[in-house]
Amino acid sequence: MSVEIEPEKAQEPAGSGPVGPRLARPWWMRPAMHTGIIGAIIGYFLGHWLGNFLSWDYARNSLSDMNDFPLVLGYVIAVVGWLAGLGVFNDLGRQIVGKPVPVAEEEEEAFGGVARYFRYSLDHKVVGIQYLVGMIIYFCTAGLFAMAIRTELLSPTYHIMSASTYLMVVSEHGTMMMMLMSSVVLGPFGNFLMPLMIGSKRMAFPRLEALSFWLTPAAFIILLSSVLIGGFPTGWTGYAPLSVQATQGMDSYAVAFGLMGISICLAGFNIIVTVINYRAPGMRWSRLPMFVWSMVTVSFLMVLATPVLVGGLYLLILDRTAQTANYVNTLGGSSYLYENLFWFFGHPEVYILALPGFGIVSEIIPVFCRKPLFGYRVAGAGMIGVALLSFFVWQHHLFVSGINPEMRPLFMLTTELISIPTGFIYLVAMGTFWKAKIRLTVPMCFALALYFNFLIGGISGVFLSDVPADTTEHGSFFVMAHFHYTIMGGIIFAFFGACYYWLPKMIGIKLNQKLGYLHFWTMFIFFNSTFLPLFAVGMLGQPRRVFEYARNLTGLNDWVSISSFLLGASILIFVINFIWSTVIVREREVGNPWNSRGLEWQVSSPPPPGNFEHVPVVLSGPYDYGVKDAPPVADLTPPVGVVSAAYASAGTASTGVEA
Amino acid sequence: MAESQAPAAPGAPEQAGPNHGMRIFLIWIVLALVADLLIWFLWYPHLPPGRMSESAQHQQFDIAVLGLAAAPVMLFVWTYFGYTLVNWRHRDGDDDDGPPLFGHTGIQASWIAGTAVIVLAAFVFGTVELIVPDGAGAGEGPNPVWKPSGSNVLQVQVIGQQWQFTYRYPQFGGMESTQLLLPLNRPVAFHVTSLDVIHSFWAYQLGVKADANPGVDNVAYTTTQQLGGFTVRCSELCGIWHGAMFDSGRVVTPAAFLAWATRTQSVERRQGVLAALPPYALAYDPTVIPQLGEQVVKVAGITGANGYYYPPSDPVQP
Amino acid sequence: MSLPARIATLLVAFAAVVAGAVFIVLHYLGSSLEVVNYSPEASGGVVNVVMQEDPQNSVSSRPDWVSYFVQDPKTKAWVHTTLFQVPANTRVNMTILGYDGCTPLRNNFWSKVQGTIGGGMSVQQFKTVGKPLGPPRRYSVLNSWSSCSVGHTFAIPSLHVFVPMASPNTALFNSSACGVSPCTSGPHSLIKFSFMTPKTTGTFRWQCFVPCGGGFLDGNGGPMQTLGFMMGNMEVSA
Lengths: 659, 318, 238
Known about the structure:
CATH superfamily of the largest domain in chain C: Cupredoxins -  blue copper proteins
Strand content of chain B: 15-25%
Shape of chain C: elongated
Structural class of chain B: alpha+beta
Number of helices of chain B: 5
CATH architecture of the largest domain in chain C: Sandwich
Radius of gyration of chain C: 22 Å
Mean pLDDT of chain C: 89
Low-confidence stretches of chain C: none
Distance between the termini of chain B: 63 Å
Radius of gyration of chain B: 29 Å
Order of helices and strands of chain C: HEEEEEEEEEEEHEEE
Oligomer: heterotrimer
Structural class of chain C: alpha+beta
Largest sheet of chain C: 8 strands, mixed
Distance between the termini of chain C: 62 Å
Largest interface: A-B, 102 and 110 residues
Number of domains of chain C: 2
Number of domains of chain B: 3
Low-confidence stretches of chain B: 1-15, 297-302, 304-318
Number of strands of chain C: 14
CATH class of the largest domain in chain B: Mainly Beta
Strand content of chain C: 25-35%
Number of strands of chain B: 10
């Protein structure tokens, strides 16, 4: 049989070779989270001292009784210490002095058990699980802040929190969600599943992948620590000059968000290189699962948009510490500069939050319709179109801010155009459902809910893109409802669907299906009852981030608040299900419970170290349901010599990528 | 777009079943018509922001038309999915796969064309609704393009500061007030600026929203049409009391407005307030106080840091 | 790990998370600022409230921040808070001692006294407590830009009360300003004005409009945005 291959482009790690038997050091002497924490503490004090040393004579410090320099440097050097303590720089050091460096595959079997989840592990499956647990923790923490917001909004006049506490809570919720949930799908599922889906045994850059994960707890803790120093008052957008004026808590925001930007950028970069270079023979671009397409397109957004954010936040830190005036109008800077830098990142950011959701549901529905994905090329074009157009729409956040008025019809056009590729995802779903054999399993329910929610969210986006309508809707709860429908109704529902679908694969344990259905129905009902009235609340004149509102809106706000408490309870059902199933019951799941044709399902659950015993040869696409005599997805044990012979002749064969 | 079946896949004989496409289409068309009628006759007259000003009325119309277009789109998707969930659920014991339909060029092309047409129509409509009511109440920046014609435009400067709006009327000697009164049937130009951080002037029932940036004159236009009160809220997070930064204004008869404005002007002139205010300008640099000359930069508290943003050894201005 | 070990670890982790959340909630919900209650002191529809504003405060972790203090009506001690409570539908006679020196207003419109009963305020300058420099004088406008005369303002925007606080005599302030807070001696101005509380109960914020947050951009950060310093709440109770 002829084998299609891509020429081997994998990088050989420098100086690789046998590392020798691992020294049997006790667990507490090997780098892991505990040494990371020690490194972080040392780094913080070092940075704090350095900051004071550099800025002791600034006049503003004696007037304001606060100095941002030591805080910022403390955070930054604490992160360096955290990473050093985890052992992130160890392999770099080994390479510098010419010692052999362990290869990723050797790492996996060397240290098993629960301990490897607390280490800087090079196994992409371990990193995926680390991300999963981390993301659930971050989501629940930010969700608790949301409960606090809704508690305060129960009454327009009686305040349980002071104004500054309320703003701090609002800002924490928004920032934590927006910065950390960017990786909520790509982190756990992208990292774990994507190599399996393309037939690879590893990611291209396992160290970058692990680094991108270990930056997230650092960013999370730094953001949470702002609560101890008074919080920050700007919301997740951090508009200057308010952010230049704010007290010390603002520094946490800038450093944490910047760290997450770096983490996101590294993760995306890794995904792109892996998908381009590490596909198994026969895995043409036209056979890639739609989930992998979404990962690739979202990774381009991550790599290209986050540097702008990091730059903008760096300028903000400079304004606050070194007293530059980048964003201060009266001293020669411009408040518009921050707005544009932020939203140039901010708009692709929300598509970073939307595209993986599309990828997951496009992956799930063929399995439970037992039909091919309708319009594969259209779906791919949709993802690429959304990703491309997302860079051309950011000024729609600034329609009333005083930008050049003639730009607004242009951005109205581009924003409305982006609904065309978004619509492709719906076309693909609707075609897949035509004459299908629909099984309403828990993952399928979540996928359907995404289509329902995102429709409402997306259409409300069309209302917002229309400039006259946006005049009333901008900055009001209408915008809040819109983005909660698209982001929470989109990627978070997809995340939970993916959990129910892929957890049997990832850890070999079934989640309780009854609790799953309970979780789904309560979450779906209360999500809609929480956010649907908010469209009305916004149109009736309540702006965002306010703690006092018109009395005639009390009824609506109370309904929303009570719904949100019930929504929080439904998420609690998931957490209970997750912990109960994975820790207490541990009902084993092996094989392919959903009978999926995905390549990842053709190996055992959980996958063996090294993923595939031999390099698989891919024979057909993953969506060939209903095709009579369809070949299996891949040949997992190709005859000996076939693959190597094909590689040997690769030098003379054409290397065109077949679409 | 009502296709009854996809091309026959190899080995899957098509049965002459019910015409699903036609059924979906019929259910949808009925629901869409009912929804659109409800939207236009029941909902449109009460849609925010109301009809108190020209910009508000055009926004109301714009939102209603968008709703008329959005409802059928959403109903189509819901009807379709509902139909599939009712008709094509998996039956117990049936372990076959569904028909291998990989795509259909006609449907795909029609969908792309249809959505493109809807989107472009929405764009044209939105642009028209933006231009016709002189910018639809949105802030147009310092160089507005769509302005009301005529020479009796009332100029009102809205000054946002932490945490209160004040209003200056240059046509009345530059008098300043914490109350916003407007005359009926008069085009109004709001010049929105800020003295510190970014605020946003949102006159809800007037359908006016313009961000207030320090040192920038953001112009928004509207024409008042009805008497009554309206809410003014800050809609850009500006610090701790952003949530409490709201106010109310009134549209009154031209005679009442003239009486109030001239009275306020003369009271302020008599009390020396007019002389104490800076000369009317489209934006104010708080570091420059005309009465105090250039010395103000060193006066405590104007920019913070006791008058300078840099320590004494550094230059004061970059 | 065996099942009992897993359950035990789970319970410990759960307890730790709950403890952490409860700690944070209690720490932040319970406001550490005292509300000085003037309602019991009201009689005949009138209540007298006394406050002072100082150039620094020696009692908090931010000693360089300017701050208001409220006098406890019973003990006559100065409390470091900006929260006070008065009854509804009552005439509030405010007496404010202004110890802090002058800063020009960012918006000189606030030089005009607004919303007070009788439309003005009375100002008397003092060399120190008990030593007036002259009789009280009434002002309806205190122009902060023409002479160094305004220190801070006291404004309740939702009741349309805006009152500039006169600063003490400049020469005296430059030579012998009060340096330890709450101030009990030193040059100061005594400002008196009155306003009516509304008939309905509620919380009404009050703030200063002078950019007096030294070291912060536009002078509006720090003490200007922190409860207990230059802004606060007036609770109107039944």
